[in-house]
Amino acid sequence: VALRRSSSRSELTLKYLGGGTVANRQALANGQTELNAVLQQLEATQSLKWRRWALLVGDQFSYLPQSSFGLLDGSVSSFGTGLGSSLGQLPSLQSFLSPNQSVLSGRGGRVSNTFLTQGGYHLTARSSLTIAGAYGLLRFFDSDLLDSYNAMLVTGYSRQISGRDTLGVAYRFNAFRFTGLNQAVDNHVAELAYGRRVTGRLALRLAAGPEVDVFRDSGVAKQSRPAWSLESALHSRLSRTALDLSYQRGLTGGAGVLAGAETNQVEATMTRGLWRVWQSSLGLGYAKNRNVAATAVSPLNRNFNTWYGRVQFRRPIGRGADQFIAYALQLQKSDTSFCAGSVCASSVVRHQLSIGFNWHHRPIAIK
Questions:
Q1: How far apart are the C-alpha atoms of 167 and 159, rounded to whole Å?
Q2: pTM of the predicted structure, to 2 decimals
Q3: Antiparallel, parallel or unpaired: β 2-6 and 148-160
């Protein structure tokens, strides 16, 4: 369910998604209580615009029964199109905003919440300044995985150099902290960004630059690690086919398994119309998470390689309904054995098949 209220200077958006699964008696008797699960997602954003100023405040909450990486489950999106909009073609905040969950860590309730505030100021008709701050957390309830918190600050400058091209520079600071662990990780990133947009057909965003990670542990001298960060996204639409590609590299919180991880993540989605009424979509993704500092819960150089693939076919039925069939595969391999509850293994495979019917009413105006 979604509520939207718009005016010439402001927009308020509220979105909610809820669901759940219920296990049979045999599964519960075998100790599979985690199959009784609830899914909750809530998002609220408020944006305000003046002649030169723009302000966005938002919060995104989710309670999921497992990792969200590659799932077929619905989503309330990621702060709509408002997040990062005043940054022009600077690096999208969405890449590193929400706590990363690209490690499959077994079923069990987890809460992810991100609060964001962002302000932008147009210096001229072609240039703007932006500053944004965010606070995120990832907490696990049915396992002994590592809870994490992070605070982020981003500031940047962008300039439109032509009708289609934008250049910018940005600085990002991210502080990661972990419950029950003395280790703290600070992440400093400076990026040069380029964006190109061809209305309705092509949009490209590329940002890259040096990164410095600082590790602090009680009783151990502070250590620094040089690295590099990259964010890229490509959207293309030709005839009946739409293609989205993205690749991000940088430091993340470790998805509850690692106390800070070097994450490389690439995802691709293609949507294409078939025949007269059918529409198909294909999604592929890969993430590699590598530990960057040895801790009591994770040794150094531990690697997790995670893949997913999903395909969906959808057909409209009248003006307000559609039917669909979808399949998703998740696969993960690690160089060491990993325990999810009482089961320990170095690989995980999941299959998900969905057949369903959607019905939606036309928007209802509220005066």
A1: 5
A2: 0.84
A3: unpaired
